[in-house]
Specification:
By secondary structure, this protein is mainly alpha-helical. It has one domain. The chain is built from three helices and no strands. The protein has helices at about 5-30, 45-60, 65-79. α1 (about 5-30) runs antiparallel to α2 (about 45-60) and α2 (about 45-60) packs antiparallel against α3 (about 65-79). The termini are far apart.
């Protein structure tokens, strides 16, 4: 197996975080409601989605841009 470049590792990590969020959203749709004790209601899904966007922007060379800075600021606020 070949070594992955840093941008490839970030893109894979972004994909994993987006997948987590997609599963959470699908479960809410299937259940017909957002559970008050689930990962959507407690903000975990939002944190994962923001982190995925941050990693995506870093992988595509957009690190440091206005959107990247806003996402990082929101993540810091949520943590």
């Amino acid at each position: 197996m070949s070594m992955l470049a840093p941008w490839q590792r970030k893109l894979l990590a972004a994909t994993e975080a987006m997948n987590f969020t997609a599963v959470e959203f699908c479960e809410a749709v299937r259940d017909g409601a957002i559970s008050p004790v689930g990962n959507i209601a407690d903000g975990t899904a939002l944190k994962q989605l923001l982190d995925a966007l941050r990693l995506f922007l870093e992988a595509t060379g957009e690190e440091g841009g206005e959107l990247h800075q806003a996402i990082c600021a929101k993540l810091e606020e949520l943590l």
